[in-house]
Design brief:
Elements: E1 5-7, H1 8-11, E2 15-17, E3 23-33, E4 42-50, E5 54-59, E6 63-67, E7 70-73, E8 77-78, E9 88-90, H2 91-95, E10 99-102, E11 108-118, E12 124-133, E13 136-137, E14 143-144, E15 147-151, E16 155-157, H3 167-172, H4 178-187, H5 190-199, H6 202-209, H7 214-222, H8 226-235, H9 238-246, H10 250-259, H11 262-272, H12 279-282, E17 289-290, H13 296-303, E18 315-319, E19 330-335, H14 336-340, E20 359-360, H15 365-374, E21 379-383, E22 389-394, H16 395-402, E23 415-416
Parallel strand pairs: 2-7, 17-18, 20-21
Antiparallel strand pairs: 1-11, 2-3, 3-4, 3-9, 4-5, 4-12, 6-7, 8-23, 10-11, 10-16, 11-12, 12-15, 13-14, 18-19, 21-22
Protein name: Mg/Co/Ni transporter MgtE
Organism: Citricoccus muralis
InterPro entries: CBS_dom, CBS_dom_sf, Mg_transptr_MgtE_intracell_dom, MgtE_N_sf, MgtE_transporter, SH3_actinomycetes
């Protein structure tokens, strides 16, 4: 090893390479195991995120260098998805933000980093704790939170059952996409999952919730303050919020809907009226809808809005006013590529694709899926019995219902070199 001592927080996010310089993935955590009372834990490996957003375990015996902006391993990596064993602890996920009591009697502190030191036999033991002493107010009114580096034996851990913060963990994972952070939360204990969720901003938590299994969603939303839970539901896509509310009791549903902004609640209520596994139950009720008089330039400006996913922005639905769903009569669509082929002043009504038939809001989801596949679409309009647009179904809406409930943990073990 290049260095006899390392600090875990400084390694998080570093690229991991094989001996030939090929990138294997990115480090996301370190794994330690406890050895008994009074003995420092031993680091047994690191968790890296490989292409495909899967997290795999690399034993410390296969790590040849850590530091200098990169991590080097031997070439052989087991691509089985990492699953912790009973005695294992994740440094960033389980230990960061844990409360400790300092042995010198100076009070309590919160762990922000953890030092590992290599022994002569090659083992990596926890040697140091980088902690932030609880903030105190000075005589001049300033709030101070002193940072200290203490040895393993100079602090006593709080009981695992006690509440634990999550600010350090959230900061260390702020670069993760919502789906990837959802995978991390899914692997946590129920207690830790709720603690981390409570630390996330409403919009970030809403994005993460949409990527989690139903049980995890219900667990998190049920442990939030009721008013904050309503705020998070407002940030979610209406179809995902409706799916989540369906998992709650009738009394919980009504209370949360009453606390939501009326406009957001109305969208969700409308989706909840549909039978499960119909187009109406999974559609997005606010697709891109414009009148036939709108120009190509206006349409391109509209679909640039960040709130529209790439799938939703792939076509503009053209309808008669009113343009809020349910709209006036459906006229047709204009595909994104078609917008690029016409001059900016061209009215949408002149370049309509009238051959694309919308689907009924009562159409079974398998039939909707076949329509998307048959015509190579990423988005299709949804109309009601009066041929008024009520929403749109995208390919990502149907994928969530096609995949098995446990798809996040499905993979086969394999070796790469």
């Amino acid at each position: 090893m290049n260095a006899p001592k390392i600090f875990v927080a400084r390694l998080l996010g570093l690229d991991v390479f094989d001996p030939l310089g090929d990138r294997l993935g990115r480090m996301r955590d370190a794994v330690v195991t406890e050895r008994g009372p009074g003995q420092p834990p031993v680091a047994v490996g690191i968790v890296i995120e490989v292409p495909g957003k899967k997290r795999v375990f690399v034993p410390m015996t296969r790590v040849t260098s850590m530091g200098a902006g990169q991590i080097i391993t031997t070439g052989l990596i087991n691509l089985r998805r990492f699953e912790r064993r009973g005695a294992e602890l994740m440094v960033a996920a389980d230990l960061f933000d844990r409360r400790v009591t300092l042995a010198d009697g100076s009070g309590q502190a919160v762990l922000e980093d953890l030092g590992l030191e290599q022994q002569r036999n090659g083992d990596w033991l926890v040697s140091d704790l980088y902690v932030r002493r609880h903030a105190s107010r000075s005589a001049f009114g300033r709030v101070r939170g002193e940072h200290l580096l203490v040895g393993w034996g100079e602090a006593r851990w709080a009981a695992r059952e006690e509440p634990q913060g999550a600010s350090s963990f959230v900061a260390a994972h702020e670069d993760l996409k919502a789906a990837d952070l959802a995978d991390v939360l899914h692997e946590m204990t129920a207690k830790r999952r709720v603690e981390v969720a409570a630390e996330l901003q409403d919009g970030r938590l809403a994005d993460v919730l949409q990527e989690l299994p139903d049980d995890d969603q219900v667990e998190i939303i049920s442990n939030l303050d009721i008013e904050r839970a309503a705020d998070v539901l407002e940030e979610m896509d209406p179809d995902d919020a409706a799916d989540l509310l369906h998992e709650l009791s009738d009394s919980q549903q009504e209370l949360l809907l009453e606390l939501m902004e009326p406009e957001d609640a109305d969208d969700v209520r409308r989706l909840m009226e549909y039978e499960e596994n119909t187009a109406g139950s999974v559609m997005t009720p606010v697709p891109v809808i414009m009148p036939p008089e709108a120009t190509v330039a206006e349409a391109l400006a509209n679909i640039r809005q960040q709130e529209f996913t790439p799938a939703m922005a792939s076509l503009v639905i053209v309808a008669r006013p009113p343009l809020e769903t349910p709209t006036g009569r459906y006229l047709g669509v204009v595909h994104f590529q078609r917008l690029l082929r016409y001059p900016p002043p061209e009215p949408l009504g002149n370049i309509l694709d009238k051959d694309l038939e919308p689907v009924s809001d009562l159409m079974p989801l398998p039939a909707v899926t076949r329509e998307l596949a048959t015509y190579n679409l990423t988005c299709i309009p949804v109309v009601n019995e009066h041929h008024r647009v009520v929403g749109a179904v995208t390919v990502d809406d149907v994928l969530d219902h096609l995949l098995p409930d446990d798809w996040r943990s499905m993979d086969e073990p394999e070796e790469v070199s």
